[in-house]
Amino acid sequence: MALIMPVEDGDRYTTNPTIWVGVAPDTLTAAVAFEVTKDIRAFLDGLNVTNIDIAYRETLPKSSPGHGPALFPIIEDGEPLKEVIENVSVALSLPISGLKTTMQCTMGPYFHVGNRLLAVTARHNVFRPEASNAEYRYNASRPKKDVVLMGNPAFTNYLVSIQAHIGTLLETVESINRKINTLTIRVRDGVNIPESQIKLDENVAELGKIRTKIDVFKAFYVDIKKGWSKIKRRVIGYVVWAPPIGVGVAPHQYTRDLCVVELYKDRFMHLIGNVLSLGPEYTSFKLKGLLHECDNVPSGFKYPEDGLLRLQGILTAEQVKNPETKNLQGNPFRRVLKRGFTTNTTVGTVTRYMSFVRKYFPTGNLESIELPIIPHENETGTFSKGGDSGSTIVSPHGEFVSLLTGGTNKGTGGSDITYSTMFEWVWELVLAEFPDANLYFENMAAFLAAPA
Predict the structure, then answer these.
(1) pTM higher than 0.85, yes or no?
(2) Which of 99, 233, 422, 450 is the most exposed place for a label (fewest CB within 10 A)?
(3) How many CA atoms lie within 13 Å of 346's alpha carbon, on the beta-carbon side?
(4) Residues contacting residue 58 through CB under 8 Å, at least 6 positions apart
(5) What is the dotted CATH code of the domain comprising 85-150+234-449?
(6) What does the alpha-carbon distance between residue 88 and residue 229 come to, in Å, rounded to a whole number?
């Protein structure tokens, strides 16, 4: 097939190179332009540069729109949006996805290197399955591997969940209105006063609170839909380093599934550090009951008043082997928590032993050491499901325990056993690549204000 060639019609003209001078609208007079042009001409003559046109145009510089809206601050228990804010707040366990991948997953802990803000997740979360397993380092000459807050399916479901909350609140309004009508009739007819009046006042007050909450939810929904719907408005960072996924990695023979993401600081202006929201799923009484079951060996867990567990310290493999707590049968064990994209906050159990995992492939078998977490015996659900990979698993004291990498099941919707890699070993890898990495932020305001 012959090449398609462009066809020109008419004569081609080539103009002189032009120096464009931008000026604010309605600020330049002909006299001033003439004087400025003479100065520019004199400068060009000194360089022996000729045949240059000089032109003026009215224009206003526009500031860069940045990388998108900042994530929301973490809110405490009891706030109206507590049930829905987690997906777009700066608390740990953000729901993430690769811009060009379909897997939905969870982001792990934050850390900083100087003034750069970074975070950890599992490599398989943001790399395509068919992609090369070679070590990846960001190269400024190549396109970035962008990481987004919620892939499109997850974001659509998120909007639906907000609408569902609004729908539930509207149903509550209808129910309260019926009670108010009934109580109003009783008060009018003098039935069971003053009890009817007290209940009427209580329901009227509750109705006002619910209507205020509906207004807050509706405004939040409009804000999220308008400002976050385009996926490029949800880009929060990009991959800067990912070692190859490996099993049986020396010296601990563990699974290496790690990825480091550099985050855009302007999207994390409300960051307060590595803080795990315990979420609205458990009351403080319920969570204490799951973590504290043996009277003679207390768990040491104290439910934070704001529902936010501050993380500090890294649990070692040796500490995992020698837990200080015991179950009702007197056997040593350790409770752990995590918050993930799919299952939110869950409580599980770590035994004293690592798990030896063998995976079978046509080309041979692969073996590795994992830290297993089993579901809590008093909970009906599982500790994790698909989408929770990358979650930070922590102790009730707020220590980093492990990074969630996968699980196994018998065909159920979740994992009978959740597999993870000791965070102690993950952090060794991070420090080898980023020697100045630090999980703790001493002066957050100064850090966020400093350019990366």
Answers:
(1) no
(2) 450
(3) 28
(4) 22, 23, 24, 25, 26, 28
(5) 2.40.10.10
(6) 12
